[in-house]
Structures are given as C-alpha cells and as structure tokens.
Design a protein that fits this description.
Largest sheet: 14 strands, parallel
Number of strands: 34
Shape: elongated
Helix content: under 10%
Radius of gyration: 26 Å
Number of helices: 3
Strand content: 35-45%
Number of domains: 2
Length: 389
Amino acid sequence: MKKLLTIILLFIGATASGQTFSTLLKDRTREFNVVTDITGETSAVSDIQTAIDAAYALYDGETNNGGGTVVIPSGIYLIDDSINLKSYVNIDIAKNAHFIFPENYFGAMWYSSTKLMGCSVDGGKYGVYDDPRTWTLIKLISDDYDDTWMQMNKFSNMYAFDCRYGISLETVNDGWINANTFKDIVLFRPLSGIRTRQGEGSGGMNENKYVNIEIQLLGSTSQFGIDSLSGDRNQFVNVSFYDCSGTTKEIVINSGADNNMFLGCSNERAYTTDNGSNNRFISAEMTSIPFGETATGNLTAEGGITTLGHLITYTGNSAIDITANPQITSGSPGQFITILGRSDTNTLTLDDGTGLTLSGQCVLGNGDIITLIYSGWSGNWTEVSRSNN
C-alpha cells in the first residue's frame, strides 16, 4: 500500500505541474512513437512529421544535447508529401513497416533542403511492385555553403520497389553534401539507382560512403545504375548492378569526379563522358566503354584505360591492339594499370612501341593479367608483372 500511494502522489504532482504521464515518458526515454492510420487508407505524413519535429525540439544546440528517436511500428503508411528530416533525430522503423505512394506522386520519401547533420533513418519497405516510377526514396539538396550543408547522416536497411531515383544528391551554388553513409539498401528496378548533381561552384559532394547496395535494373527501361557521379573521394563498397541491357548505363562518371574508389563491386560496364582523374576500381570487374559506344575496335584514352585506376577488365567482341601513345595516354608518376583478359576468343594484344615498354608481345586470354606502371621520368608505361593462366 505504501508503494502504491507513492506512485499516486508522484502522478498527482506531475499533473499539477502541467505534465502528463505521456510527456513524462517522452522526456525520460526521448522516444516518440508515431500514432497514425496503419492501413494505408489516409495520409500518415502529418503524424510522422509531428513526431520528427517533437524529437528535434529536444536538441539543444548550445550544449549539443542530441534530439530524440522517432519509432515507426509495423503497418502500412500512405505517403503523399515529403517527410522533412531534422538534425540529430533518429528514425527507427519496424521491419514490416511499409510505405506506399499515391499514383503519380512525384515527391520524395525522405527529404531535406535545410542544414542536416547527425540524422539517421533505419528500416522500411517502400513502394510496390510495378509502381509508375515517379517518387524518390532519399532526396538531399544543398544550395548554401553556410546554411544548408549536409554531413554525417546515415540511411540504412531499406528496400525500395520501382522508384524514380533511389538516392538523389544535389548541390546548387556553393552548397555541399559530404561524409554521409548509405548502407544495406536494395533498389529494385529504379529509373536510376544513385543520382548525383554537383552544381558549379559547389562546396563539394565528397567522401560519401555507399556500402552493400543492390541495384536491380530493368534492362532498357532503367537508365542508370549511378547517374553522373560527381565529387571526390567517395567510396563504393560491394555495390552491385544486375540486368543492365539496351540503353541502360551502369555507371556514368563525369569530369567532376576524382579519386573515387570502387571496392568489390560487381559491374559490367562504366560509360563515361569524362572520367575525371584517379578513380580506382579495386577487385571490381569493369570494362570501360565510351558513353554511347560499344567495346569494339581500339580502346582509346576516352575509354578510361588510364583514368579508371587499378583494374580494367576487357570482355569485348573483337581483338584490341594497343601499341603506343596516344592510345595509352600519359599517367601520373607511379600510377598502376592492371588489365585482365576475360576471353580466349576475343583476345587483347599489347605490342611494344613508343610510350609502352614490354618484354615482348603480350596477348591476354581468359584469366591472363598484365600490370604496367607509369614513369614520369621516362614518360613510358613499363611492364612490371605478367601472369599467363
């Protein structure tokens, strides 16, 4: 009886000071559970946004006291407007929470055009099979270096069906989007999986990390796996593409992309207008093909043989004869190129010539590898190792 009386007195004292048991619970746990229609018949946007705004209100910028956590339970949620993300708010989504969109909805699911830092979104299924590909899963836009930059945010454990864009990043003017993480995401039949647009005078779209991402393309209906990669020192680890065909391009790298790394990725083709410089493909099967062309005839500098970096794979339909500059262009001192043959029928032939120093002619069949290093002193590419399997 004494313990029960104590609880009653505490509750009376709390309500007398203007707080309810519910608000006391939120203050203690810093969690906000979304209460909304979970049948997908009415819009859930207002309830989700209210919870995010309330969690953000806990953030104290002066003492750097973090915001709260929004919990979205299992259910079906109708989304007919973009959800605006807030700094230092964690959104924890139940495994079976499913977000659907009205027909011809052209907005985004998770969106920000204001300063965003330390936010995380984890979980959820998005869209339905055979959606009309109008909506975007994640859309971040920064247009001001001081006021709308985005950094150290994390998006993970998502499965999206038939979206327009999976991840869309855009900098306008001098805005910047740096050091964000996108991890364990499946994009099933998007129009474009990852889309980046770096504006003139941008503060950067750099050091973002894409880890364990599966992009299932839909032949010629999809357009890009990665559309016009921009920025420097971005990392792609275990990013895979499937069913690229027709006019679909797996990766388009533009002139504003330097020193990016692809590690352990499964790719067939990288289409390029201008490769930038020092982009690295490590343990990643890759054939570089000029934008809009096929892998026949001579593999020239525009094909990316010096700019793709560590590993180049040739799987073309005809023999390639690389004899000298300018077909193999000047590199950076110490730059390596490793070329891997993938066919005994369509071989790749390297002949000694000006700008290329070999220990005799090299014909690369399936599994044959040759590694060249560029000497800034001599201006030549020189063979350093060869494996004939």
